[in-house]
Design goal:
There is one protein chain. A two-stranded parallel ribbon has the order 1-2. It contains two helices and two strands. It starts with a strand and ends in a 29-residue tail after the last helix. By secondary structure, it is mainly alpha-helical. The chain has a domain of 35 residues.
Length: 65
């Protein structure tokens, strides 16, 4: 399963069910081509820092909603 991010608990649950989540960034077409052509997807690196980040300031005009 190609994902942009996955937590440790969901990752463990998916793995136990036989589904391996592959964290990646980039275009899905590139990832699928790499996987299906047997080139591996090592060049697709997962986002660092996770999804949950603090919002600096009061949330106004700083990209936070």
């Amino acid at each position: 399963m190609l994902v942009s991010a996955v937590g440790q608990t969901p990752k463990a649950i998916l793995s136990e069910a036989g589904t391996v989540p592959l964290e990646m960034t980039g275009f899905i077409e590139m990832a699928l081509r790499a996987v299906y052509e047997g080139n591996g997807a090592a060049f697709l690196k997962a986002r660092r820092g996770g999804l949950a980040k603090g919002c600096p300031g009061n949330g106004m005009r700083s990209g936070c909603i």
